[in-house]
Acetate--CoA ligase
Amino acid sequence: MSNYHIKHLEEYFQVYRKSVRNPEAFWEEVAEEHFFWRKRWDSVLEWDFTKPEIKWFDGAQLNITENCIDRHLRSRGDKTAILFEPNDPKEEAQHITYHDLHERVCKFANVLKDQGVKKGDRVVIYLPMIPELAVSVLACARIGAIHSVVFAGFSSTALATRINDCEAKIVITSDGSFRGNKTIDLKGIVDEALKQCPGIGSVLVAKRTGAKIDMMEGRDHWLQPLLDKAYADCVPEIMEAEDPLFILYTSGSTGRPKGMMHTTAGYMVYTAYTFKNAFQYREDDIYWCTADIGWITGHSYIVYGPLVNGATTVMFEGVPSYPDFGRFWEVVEKHKVTQFYTAPTAIRALAKENLDFVTKYDLSSLKVLGTVGEPINEEAWHWYNDHVGDKKCPIVDTWWQTETGGILISPIPFSTPTKPTYATLPMPGVQPALMDENGKEIKGNQVDGRLCIKFPWPSIARTIWGDHQRYKDTYFSAFEGKYFTGDGALRDEVGYYRITGRVDDVIIVSGHNLGTAPIEDAINEHPAVAESAIVGFPHDVKGNALYGYVILKETGESRDRDNLKKEINQMITEHIGPIAKLDKIQFVPGLPKTRSGKIMRRILRKIASKETDNLGDISTLLNPEVVEQIIEESL
Ligand code: WTA
């Protein structure tokens, strides 16, 4: 069926035109032919971006795990669903078949039920990349509980904020995690977080590292004995199309993270469709996405998209540098990976190392390479193309967001000619628009502007958990009647899109979205700090790194500056996690401000990037004299 699996460029244009001319007919056709529904929908789409309210396949009933697992049992029961590659290459990989997955998910679902978890309850999952992570996500979906996975690199404070924001009643974690040659005490972080979370009645603990941990009587339970006793079948909860499937937090421009809420039917249809097309997935492929399931990429393209298609999806516990910088390629050779999907920051880090780490492995199984998370620079693109893909594998530069649920702009491999640094063309059903500062759409090619989407696609987030007003303000207020992405983009002479980066207060460091406000809040809690401002500056591996400008209180002035810098980064590690640490910290006497008291980040960004020739007009600032001094002492 050509709608579902595009095979050449002309077909893409045909399908795209059809999808835009009549989106409802287009998505209805996709939904009818490739999924298992308990009840058909009454209407395909109802929407109003001014409220905003979006409903796809309203009236339909389904359970996404029946689509991910049960319906494959007859034809693919013994096929590997999840191929788990442990951190330590000496530990054997696990092939979890669709039959195994069914049993593991059902047992886990029954354990959750025994713990009192019901449809609509929130379950926070704080696990490393071990099979229990995917299994617990699916177990929640099986019984209609709403999962909220928190990336296991987040600190106890960040974890507590998320648990409390979604009012979860249970946390799933492990005794610890392996990352390269380190072990991390995850349970200790959970214990610390739970001091601030009165709503949590129970904690399920998977065993991974065997580290000695504290178990709180009555609250904490080892998972395995409960699974051993659980019944191996669990009738799926019948869900409405628009019932919530999960909440996933992303950074915003204020201190509170945004709990993006995704619903069931539209998310399923869109992630399955885009997985099939963006990776040209075929039945016997071995697909590997190196992301963590704690991010949206892992939700959509390790778990749901691949499993709905009956694919084999690799889950990797480790890091690209352990035991050495050849690990990715060793795993590709070992499992004969056909599609490989990673982040530009990983490519840049590996490109710095000796080429022998790549060339000593047989990478001939690869067919398609993907990237996601931030703009890929030309040099990294070519390195990936030349040395990993041997110039034979199309690179799909996939642009999308936590909010979009699935890939919105990407080449279709073997159909769309690729162009370095360009995400190229919209997926079928996706209608991008570039807007100018006055809110007018910029038509034609060879233009740039702010990237909006004019029409809903099935996996758009439906709200911010508990704060619909913020959802409206953040995404639907800047440009009337359109979804605003927060990114800038240009459209070249043939209509290809290139994403140029964030135009708001979010900075992408190593592919992780970081809001400036939460980092500033963390720093300002240091007793010696009066005020701070964070900006990004270019970094050759991370894409962007963080530069902090800090004003000390009088009490801090006499303190040792190096110690203060360490303490500031420690504050950030405790409040957010090590991913948000600052590369550079400059102590300043003041921050450039407008007359209304707003920090002029544009100027600070230029100083951090050493582009001080053209600062623009600073005479209207409240304190222009401070700029000169900041430049003189800049790092
Ligand atoms: C950025 C990740 C350029 C962008 C799936 C977006 C990209 C943010 C690309 C979302 C890409 C993602 N090229 N920039 N291919 N992919 N981005 O929510 O700024 O973690 O808004 O979702 O990452 O990050 P998030």
User: Anything to note?
Assistant: Residues 250, 295-297, 372-375, 397-402, 423, 485-487, 499, 502, 508, 513 surround WTA (CB under 6 Å). The chain has 20 helices and 31 strands. The two ends are 58 Å apart (CA to CA). Residues 98-114 form the longest helix (17 residues).
